[in-house]
């Protein structure tokens, strides 16, 4: 059984036992969270799509880690204008382990 969830402005296809990295969620490591923004639930050839959410469907997950992705370097330059700008960014994430998908 799998589900399509929405968190942090993005959509993820998840199944029980998987680990995913999502936008940062304010939760402690080891804490269990319930995601109720479920857009679709599938089981084999059967698919239940919500309008926009599936009523009563939840996904239970445990917070495994909080961290930062690798640095993304931004370099801007205008040729012949003596303009160079360097900037870096590290996006924060929360790593979740999906425990169960309830339809």
From TrEMBL:
GO molecular function: rRNA binding; structural constituent of ribosome
GO biological process: translation
UniProt keyword Zinc present: no
Pfam families tied to this protein: Ribosomal_L21p (PF00829)
Organism per entry: Rivibacter subsaxonicus
Keyword vocabulary terms for this entry: Ribonucleoprotein, Ribosomal protein, RNA-binding, rRNA-binding
Physiological role: This protein binds to 23S rRNA in the presence of protein L20.
Record text on subunit structure and interactions: Part of the 50S ribosomal subunit. Contacts protein L20.
Gene: rplU
Protein name as catalogued: Large ribosomal subunit protein bL21
Superkingdom assignment: Bacteria
NADP among keywords: no
GO cellular component: a single term: cytoplasm
InterPro entries the record matches: bL21-like, bL21-like_sf, Ribosomal_bL21, Ribosomal_bL21_CS
Protein family per UniProt: Belongs to the bacterial ribosomal protein bL21 family.
């Amino acid at each position: 059984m799998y589900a399509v969830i929405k968190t942090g402005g993005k959509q993820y296809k998840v199944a029980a036992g998987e680990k995913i990295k999502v936008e940062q969620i304010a939760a402690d490591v080891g804490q269990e969270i319930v995601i109720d923004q479920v857009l679709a639930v599938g089981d084999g050839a059967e698919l239940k799509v919500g309008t926009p959410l599936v009523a009563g469907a939840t996904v239970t997950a445990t917070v495994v880690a909080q961290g930062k992705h690798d640095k993304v370097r931004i370099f801007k330059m205008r040729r012949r204008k003596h303009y160079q700008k360097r900037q870096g960014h590290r996006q924060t994430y929360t790593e979740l382990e999906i425990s169960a998908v309830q339809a």
